[in-house]
Amino acid sequence: MLQLMAFNAAYAQIIDSDELERWPACFTEHCHYRITHVENEQEGLPAGVVWADSRAMLEDRIAALREANIYERQRYRHLLGTPHIESADAHSASACTPFMVARIMGTGETMLFATGHYNDRFVMEAGRLLLAERVAVCDSTVTDTLMALPL
Amino acid sequence: MLQLMAFNAAYAQIIDSDELERWPACFTEHCHYRITHVENEQEGLPAGVVWADSRAMLEDRIAALREANIYERQRYRHLLGTPHIESADAHSASACTPFMVARIMGTGETMLFATGHYNDRFVMEAGRLLLAERVAVCDSTVTDTLMALPL
Amino acid sequence: MLQLMAFNAAYAQIIDSDELERWPACFTEHCHYRITHVENEQEGLPAGVVWADSRAMLEDRIAALREANIYERQRYRHLLGTPHIESADAHSASACTPFMVARIMGTGETMLFATGHYNDRFVMEAGRLLLAERVAVCDSTVTDTLMALPL
Predict the structure, then answer these.
(1) Contact assessment for residue A86 and residue A14, using Cβ atoms and an 8 Å cutoff
(2) Beta bridge pairs of residue C128
């Protein structure tokens, strides 16, 4: 549990301190990353607000964000709960971790932007813990068009 | 501390994923559960917004919620802090744990609904950690009439 | 990591339960405590909203707060993330820990007041973990005039 918590702390810090170029390295090369919401997920709809199935796609996304410059006007602050571990062995773990994310605009306005949970599958690769899969399931269905930074 | 954190992660997930029927099983048969606020608690007033002294009463509460269907229009998202352990031995522990709870309405509107701390007494029963007592002390005095789901 | 988490849990509880007189004892005698915001910090500006370089200054601050009685009308609720440990040995540790702080007014109104991260340096003194340095870097630049309680 402590390893997952340390991983999640590093993951959140990368996003919240605007070191987005380091974010794809949290994932395996062939990974699955998706932002969706709870209704979509319960109905088994595969599509999400954001979707990627390789580290290269995550890198593309960050490059696009940097080019669009949207991200400059806002910051995120992630607060993550304790992972609820569903299964774990020496090489992998499945866990569910709640999140609250605040968004801080350039004007200083702060709002509770997104809440939800991560459905995660972690693997050990060459002694490093990596995400083979992270599905960020948002509780609300209405933040879609505002998604700029990764959750 | 890790055991309490894992317990709390499971507890929060049960409520936030709408598996409310599993919630009473977090408690001992003769338990004490109460939602109150900090002013009431400081004045030693025993009454709270919600009050139960057995697992059966908690089961009744969930059944009533399901019947009233109030819960369908809203979800909670709990974020719990690290337990501050006041005392612990092999069979029991007393701890104080801060919480923030967001409420997500069917419309998607998200608000910081309740903040406060749990005053908890845990016991080990047949190798399982259970709550003998959980008093959810809210920081604000004005959310009372909105309480539907457990904290 | 668990030691830092336990320390932070106690630190937050001291502030949130209005035991402010115990707050300076979280620090070494010659400490550095500062509240600032991310833009100031990135530009290397030393000044902050709040600034102290000894435990005695922290004690003075609490005494002033008590005299001004400002604090009576509001409470804070800290939720702290997992510390991201940058370096650690047997005697000290540097860590970065995210926070969300809600403010609860006497009227019951609750708002997400401040988000950010602590840049911390911990030391062991006579077997006790203490803060030699805590810089609370807020994400937003506009809460300055409202700062009353410590972060």
Answers:
(1) no
(2) C125
Spell out a b/e string for B37-46, using b for 16 or more CB atoms within 10 Å of the CB, else e: bbebbeeeee
Contact, C120 vs A122, CB < 8 A?
no
Sign (positive or negative) of CA dihedral B35, B36, B42, B44: negative
Torsion over CA of A63, A68, A74 and A75, rounded to 10 degrees? Answer: 0
What CA–CA distance (Å, rounded) separates A99 from A114? 8
Chain A positions in Cβ-Cβ contact with residue C118 (cut-off 8 Å)? none
Contacts of C112 in chain A (CB under 8 A): 102, 110-112
What's at B31, amino acid-wise?
C
Tokens of B89: 């031995």
**Interface pTM (ipTM) of the complex?**
0.92
Q: Chain B contacts of A4, Cβ < 8 Å? A: none
Per the CB < 8 A criterion, the answer to whether B32 and B150 are in contact is no
State whether C6 and B1 contact (CB < 8 Å). yes
* C130-144: pLDDT as tens digits: 999 999 999 988 765
Where residue A47 falls among pLDDT bands split at 50, 70, 90?
A: low
Contact residues for C51 (Cβ-Cβ < 8 A; gap 6+):
C33, C34, C35
Q: Under an 8 A CB cutoff, do C110 and B85 touch?
A: no
Mean pLDDT of C29-46: 85
